[in-house]
Write a structure and sequence with these properties.
The structure holds two protein chains of two kinds. By secondary structure, chain A is mainly beta. Chain A has no helices and eleven strands. Chain A has strands spanning about 5, 10-15, 20-25, 30-40, 40-50, 55, 65-70, 75-80, 85-95, 105, 110-114. Chain A is globular. By secondary structure, chain B is mainly beta. Chain B has strands at about 5, 10-15, 20, 25, 30-40, 45-50, 60, 70-75, 85-90, 100, 105-109. In chain B, a hairpin with a 7-residue loop joins strand 9 (about 85-90) and strand 10 (about 100). The N and C termini of chain B lie far apart (about 40 Å). The chains are: A mainly beta, B mainly beta.
Chain lengths: ~110, ~110
């Protein structure tokens, strides 16, 4: 099993460009998440999907949209990239939500917006 | 508001010394607490969770509800413990995890 996979691994965008970060999991998990990791800020939740067909905003949703395409896939879209969105993006998944549900993380996507 | 505070950005210790990574939380109900770890060039992964009362790689963490703390401890640090450590909180309602800002642990010989 590959676990949680993310594409691409690296991306450089110009201000105003759009792109979609892809995430897939093969663990039959119900819940999926998108985080951004910035120096000194830790991990901040952008959006999450508790189950297929639902999405909810996290702490920092502005400038992003998400799509839970099916149970396996959860994509993150930047419609008009800004330098403030330069970050490392992590996708994660868990069987459910709550204290017994460990989150499994992908390898991350390093995004630079010029 | 739910919040997790890790007051130290960097903790440097010598091999064999005791380690304590501090974590304080703010939550109105009864939260569940976790420690996640990210080793160099590896994925973020769960280290331990309060509800399991476990010890992983020699690390333990005790939930102190009076002090709203969940500090991570290890009696004798090893060089392979060098990593970024995140404390995280989950509310009983089953919402997504809230992470602290992380503490980098550096263990040198």
């Amino acid at each position: 099993n590959a676990g949680v996979t993310q594409t691409p691994k690296f991306q450089v965008l110009k201000t105003g460009q759009s792109m979609t970060l892809q995430c897939a999991q093969d663990m039959n998990h119900n819940s999926m998440y998108w985080y951004r990791q910035d120096p000194g800020m830790g991990l901040r939740l952008i959006y999450y999907s508790a189950s297929e067909g639902t999405t909810d905003k996290g702490e920092v949703p502005n400038g992003y949209n998400v799509s839970r395409l099916n149970k396996r896939e959860f994509s993150l879209r930047l419609e008009s990239a800004a330098p403030s969105q330069t970050s490392v993006y992590f996708c994660a998944s868990s069987l459910g939500q709550g204290p017994y549900n460990e989150q499994f993380f992908g390898p991350g996507t390093r995004l630079t917006v010029l | 508001a739910q919040r997790v505070t890790q007051p130290e950005k960097l903790l440097s210790v010598f091999k064999g010394a005791p380690v304590e990574l501090k974590c304080n939380y703010s939550y109105s109900g009864s939260p569940e607490l976790f420690w996640y770890v990210q080793y160099s060039r590896q994925r973020l992964q769960l280290l331990l969770r309060h509800i399991s009362r476990e010890s992983i790689k020699g690390f333990t963490a005790d939930l102190n509800k009076g002090e709203t703390s969940f500090h991570l401890k290890k009696p004798f640090a090893q060089e392979e413990d060098s990593a970024m450590y995140y404390c995280a909180l989950s509310g009983q309602a089953g919402t997504a995890l809230i992470f602290g800002k992380g503490t980098t642990l550096s263990v040198s010989s």
